[in-house]
## 1
Amino acid sequence: MTITAIERNNRRRSRVDLYINGVVACDISRVTAKKRDLCIGSELSEAELAGLIAEDRKREAMETAAAMLARRPHSEREVRRRLTQRKLDEPIIEATLGRLKEVRLLDDAEYARSFTESRGRMSPRSKRLLVQELRAAGVDSAVAASAVADVSDVDAAYELAQTRLRSLSRLEEQAFRQRLSGLLQRRGFGWDVTRGIVDRCWLETSEGRSA
């Protein structure tokens, strides 16, 4: 089989279409094409073409996963979903996930810890809601529970309330309580915690007005 053309892939700049005997046989990464020193006129056997495609798909799987994890931690399920969307074969996906876990680039426990810390800094919410979100990302229930074990609903609710007090501080008491209660409940806090934080914040706001 003879390579008759190597053309830029229209959908992905990093890849090229490989023509064999005048027909598109596959698309591969530019890196793979360069590494194999492919050019027009090169001869490939069926076994060599199959090996070339397999090598390229393994590279694509690892590069896709690594790019995801370089931006932020992800759960195993999230990485698996992305690789599946790339239409990669299951054995390649499993091998990629296995390698990433082996070198500890993919670790659901670390992901859950990082996720919990990030939410605490940027968007506080209840332990119950945190566990729900981690479970939705594919994290095991025991791992999720361990990650949120040190979270205090009272502290998290108060931190959240503090981010909104400036916009609520001029409201009358009933509107203040309704707005803040709604916010806390949407973030998963139970009624007992919500009521206590609303009372505390209203008292602090009232004292600030009279100071």
## 2
Amino acid sequence: MGSYMNTRELAKYLGINEKKVYSLIEERGLPATKVTGKWGFFKELVDNWLENTVENHPSILHKLKGFLMVAGSNDPLLDFTLGEMGHSGLFPFFCNTGSTDGLSMLRDRKIHIAGSHILDEEEGEYNIPMVASHFAEFRTVVVNFAYRQQGLILKSGNPLKIKRVEDLVKPKVRYINRQKGSGTRVLIDSYLNKAGIDGSKINGYETEVSTHLDVGLRILRGEADAGAGIRATAHLLGLDFIPLKEERFDLLIPRDYFFLDEVQRLMEILKSDQFRNESARFGGYDTRDSGKVIYTC
């Protein structure tokens, strides 16, 4: 490829679609010039832009030796794992933002790792379609954390006899919801849409909390009868659980962060027997691919 590229050639070079090229010009300052009404790109300028995007912007994170900044989707096993890392002289920080906001923070280079379980229903695939379409220019690595069971968390004994999503519209059922932008909220809303259920018809649908544990505690305290969450929370609190789907929970890591000592320490933990033993104690997890790189761009 020569030093000058048209839009189609640049899209191929970056591994993205042509529409994404136009948004990078407008939103992120991708250097471009118009010749006879068409966009053109000098490879050297594009390479410098990529280098500045990757190296200059995240320089603060590179200097945070001993610190690991993680955000995104909530998961109790991930919380526990990061906490255990703190006993080895590292300082991990986690912010429960939900998958969508965690990815925004990753794009802005505010964190090292984002936890995500966003399902592309058209492709039936978690996280990878989104990374391929929106993160290709950032050279992102997708590592599996674990598979986990998502479903409905219910009062112990299931006194209202809830058996499926459609039962959430029963007059006596009080529901507790996850926040907008969380992968769990996206999943439950997709089930409601397939069932033709308007969320406004569910008592408590507008009441939101930010973690799986918050959902479980509201139910345990008698403030709600049902909520969407993972089996591990129900297992921890002695609540009933109706499985809806096994999902893949991944960690998204910019390639230039992947080989940092702090990140590699987490990768080692995910492949350890200790991690697998802990996941079994939590319940509702499958660690068959934990620590495995399943996609890179």
## 3
Amino acid sequence: MNRLEHLRAKLDKLDSGFSRRVRRDIEGPCSPHVTLDGRAFTAFCSNDYLGLAGAPQLAGALAEGARRWGAGAGASHLVSGHYAVQHALEERLAAFVGRERALVFSSGFMANMGIIPALAGRGDAIFADRLNHASLIDAMLLSRADAHRIPHLDTAALERQLAASTAETKLIVSDSVFSMDGDVAPLRELMVLAERFDTWLLVDDAHGFGVLGPQGRGAAAEAGIDGWRLIQMGTLSKAAGVSGAFVAGDATVIEWLMQKARTYIFTTGSPPALAQALLASIELIEAGDGCRAHLAALIERLTKGLAQKRWKLLPSRTPIQPLVVGGNAAALALGAALMEEGLWVPAIRPPTVPAGSARLRITLSAAHTLADVERLIEAINRLEKTL
């Protein structure tokens, strides 16, 4: 068997295990109401939690930014690819989350892959929740620090491992909102441990920024934590509706990251037009209490309306509402049955989630209507009895 045949065999194995991923092409802007192959669907797939990705205000700001700043950056940020509008965005983000300084990256994955190796290396120790995002896991491995995987949300286990560590530099790493379960990290407890054991605390707020905290300032603001030990990463492609990511913290920390984060130094800067759109997005997030209240109402209706016996809706107060079905084939069958009814909810399977916990990852947006959610509730409750 040659190399190409070997790859084909591995793809066949993905098929036999109901594990091959499939892309779908949306015919229009991001919205809960989309068209696929000429058919209309109500989508519960997107991380566009405030419904901003398709907002005319952001499309207009992006177009204005392209006219003013052009289509591309032309170089890395530290050569000639950093623009005044990007500096303004970093200042706005830092002020919004209440930190001294911020640094914008091209994506959340690149941000995490830059932050962690810049703070920890050989002989250091990283303590990470077992359900952290793949970018945090990969960054931890890249750093070559000693990796300690902590059982999910188990602060007692974290405390024991911190106490046993003799590493000079320690880093606690956690998602704020866990992307496949929708639960929220105990950030206050993590901050107490960071102070007690003299560690950094990196919080990946990808799914909290824009949704949690006063005016959507994020999970750290909701938890009321602060200080130079706290390093916050947030994405700008989910609730913010555009693209990119940022890290915010003490000015000295951010300066160090600008000097040492390889995914910042050695990549072409993001198009400056995106910064123009993101400045408009922060304004909408800050003024978005009505959107967040509507989103909270939709979450409450879904969690109260789904009456499952065979399947399990995981406890979550966030827009991520996972419905655990069990096997891969069963999750795909439920997703396909919903698609037949014009409801698009993705099936999530291992290795993204543990074996035997394949699920539908229902995500809600402020752009959904109550009628959209009622329709989904009725379909899932009925299919659990008949599928």
## 4
Amino acid sequence: MKSNAARVPVILSGGVGSRLWPVSREAHPKPFMRLADGRSLLQKTFLRLAALPGIDEVLTVTNRELYFKTGDDYREVNATGLPLGFILEPCGRNTAPAIAAAALYAAERFGGESVLVILPADHLVADQAAFAEAVDRAARLAGEGWLATFGIRPDYPETGYGYIEIDNSENLIPQSAAGAWRVRRFVEKPDTELAHRYVESGCHLWNSGMFCFRADRVIEEMQACAPDVVVAVQACLSASRRTSGDKLHSVELSRETFEQVPDISIDYALMEKSARVAVAPCDIGWNDIGSWTAIGDLTEPDRAGNRVLGEAVLHDVSNCYIQSEERLVGAVGVDNLVIVDTPDALLVAGRDSVQDVKNIVGQLRLAGHETYRLHRTVHRPWGTYTVLEEGRGFKIKRIEVKPGASLSLQMHHHRSEHWVVVSGMAKVVNGERELYVSTNESTFIPAGHKHRLENPGVVELVMIEVQSGEYLGEDDIVRFEDVYGRC
């Protein structure tokens, strides 16, 4: 690999994390979960990559609906103003199309020799120094034309991970990447007995889902192993909208063409087929945070084995994980439970059954229940809204609008709205009128009226919205103009 080859970190931020409901939801997925230190998994991933030497840009592949939320998270931690790139997907199509799009983007912007370091957005790595060393080894492999993956040395027989079986008959390229091995095969999540055998064999590593390869090399290999993916993604990129600004580049993938892209993982499409796959074993303090048990393990237990995040009063309780955002939790005479309380949903699960939480999400989705998708507080590009109360024919929201931000010019068919300003100043379009509404003042917007809400000030605008009507769903909205491109 030439020393001047660009190193481009790629963050894949597409999963929902249904096993971590009720905190992880479709509109607020697992990468945005805040841990005890106040930082999200996405922010931790960004900082991990930003700390590597020689970074030209951090590229994120995410859903179009999460673009502004992702930007908000990055602004909190991107102190050095590292350039950002975004590939915005209109819908999920798994990791192979996402990585193909990232490779084609990097080859175009930085050249085919650029080295991609690909990480999921929702994992933890405790040892930054060991991670940086593993990336250096993987980058040397990539420079030799290998498709490198990061294998985690297992310290217990985990049944929730896939495994990588190494070919230990031949150390791979010892002069440039000592300790790396050719991959013999990828294996699916094993049962308990098989997992024990994998750990005892010394020839199996956990499949971390992290990769490193040259942009041109992965494109060539995908053209050989999954040509339909490359062709479809190339067509999609050609039809997509691109924008560039100060240290910001984005590609908004065309929905019409992206929906035709095969839905397939990078393991199935490429890694299991290519003869040029190598693995760099590493001990980096890796955790994929795949369940509430994994979240609980991040908190120190008390003498009874309980781990508590929030406020709780316990009597005769042992080996439980309890998390509450707002309310006090009281527990009596229980053992081995997970209790997670949010403002609008409560999870109670046996610790041995946390992998099955996704089944609750599936039932909620089939029933059309909003809690599979939204929290009571919903983030929008302009700010947030919180549903305070709702009932038959009415809904009450607390709306916060960032300084200088504006909602779309819109109209509702089935509901009217009464806006009361609590603090700040609102600039309002109400039908044909444009007016300013100050603290303790209000305005009424009948159904069918075009309207817009804007914060022209330098402090946050807070207001109460009272909706009334025969239908109060969030999909009763017609947008005419929108600064965030949502029309």
